Amino acid sequence: MDYRSIMNGGRKGPLAAAMRGGLWLASRGYAVGVWKRNRGYDSGQGVLRCEVPVISVGNLTTGGTGKTPVVCFLAKWFRQKGIRVGIVSRGYGRGDADANDEALELYARLPDVPHVQDPDRVAAASIAVDELDVQLILMDDGFQHRRLHRDLDLVVIDATNPFGFGHLLPRGLLREPVSSLARADLVIISRCDAVDEDRLRGIEQQIHNANATLPIVRSQHVPTSLLEYPNQQVSLEQLDGCRIAVVSAIGNPDAFRETLIKCGATVVASRELPDHDPYAPETVESLRTWIRSLGDSISRVVCTHKDLVKLCTDSLGGVLVSALIVELRLSGGEDLESSESAEAKLHALLAKVADQVTAEEDY
């Protein structure tokens, strides 16, 4: 069943309405739990400090908002300053594996940045500091994980679905109310190129209704190249006019498909798997059968980098497989040093944390 069509009201009829009513009632209980939990942390109960500065990169909703490119951007920024960065995350969806798909993707992009995965982010941070000697921790998906004190709270909001259909889980996709942005230090709106200016202004107004002084940085997820397994990068021009099949196991497959279309590709067919799907052997074999059934109608299969690190193959069903590589670009240009708007505020916040690292090292 397509639960998103229930949440967003796209599915009509008495049954769909009844399901929305039931989900709304369930969301009331969820809201009480979130309120009680946040009230405790707001008072400082149970919050533990790490020996090094911590930056949290999180979101308000479930599903893909584009945090991974933000984490990559930040890690590279601090590495360029000579700071030893470590990433900690929950490791959702990894099962019995040592790392989940996001960790594998981050390792491929950031081979000099260690990544510790543990549902107990405090324990993960201790390992990163004590055993890996990091000077700064990036906590991936940490806005709701409040037990670990953070020195900077960055929240990523996806412009294509900013507020989870306007309802808390399970009626919508919101993990907590939009009013929780009151505790954020800065918001990065991702995929701004996918919506018009009026929509962006409306999103910014809702953010400022929750936190009037919160800096907001606009960004785009910009495709830069195609990656063919294991490490062959080719030009995006290969997609221009190319008839493709799309395979993805991510939180926002619609945005990914639209990005490919903007790159000039013609999407002939697509297969969407659950977010963080492990690509078990039977799943991969099913994909091969499906791709063979498409015959000569396609010349390439395209997935995300997060998918490719699990597929670990250069072809499926006899068809070339490529991953779309996406980088974060901030509005106003890539150079934070010369930007004078909200991007400069982000730079100032990051520089403050970098100075804190230096001061602690000197001490």
From TrEMBL:
Binding annotation for ATP: 61-68
Key words, A-Z: ATP-binding, Kinase, Lipid A biosynthesis, Lipid biosynthesis, Lipid metabolism, Nucleotide-binding, Transferase
Catalysis performed (reactions): a lipid A disaccharide + ATP = a lipid IVA + ADP + H(+)
Enzyme Commission number, as recorded: 2.7.1.130
SUPFAM superfamilies: P-loop containing nucleoside triphosphate hydrolases (SSF52540)
Pathway linked to the protein: Glycolipid biosynthesis; lipid IV(A) biosynthesis; lipid IV(A) from (3R)-3-hydroxytetradecanoyl-[acyl-carrier-protein] and UDP-N-acetyl-alpha-D-glucosamine: step 6/6
The keyword Nucleotide-binding is annotated on this UniProt entry: yes
Lineage: superkingdom: Bacteria
Function: Transfers the gamma-phosphate of ATP to the 4'-position of a tetraacyldisaccharide 1-phosphate intermediate (termed DS-1-P) to form tetraacyldisaccharide 1,4'-bis-phosphate (lipid IVA).
UniProt similarity note: Belongs to the LpxK family.
Annotated HAMAP family: LpxK (MF_00409)
Protein name, per record: Tetraacyldisaccharide 4'-kinase
Protein species of origin: Novipirellula caenicola
Taxonomy of the source species: Bacteria, Pseudomonadati, Planctomycetota, Planctomycetia, Pirellulales
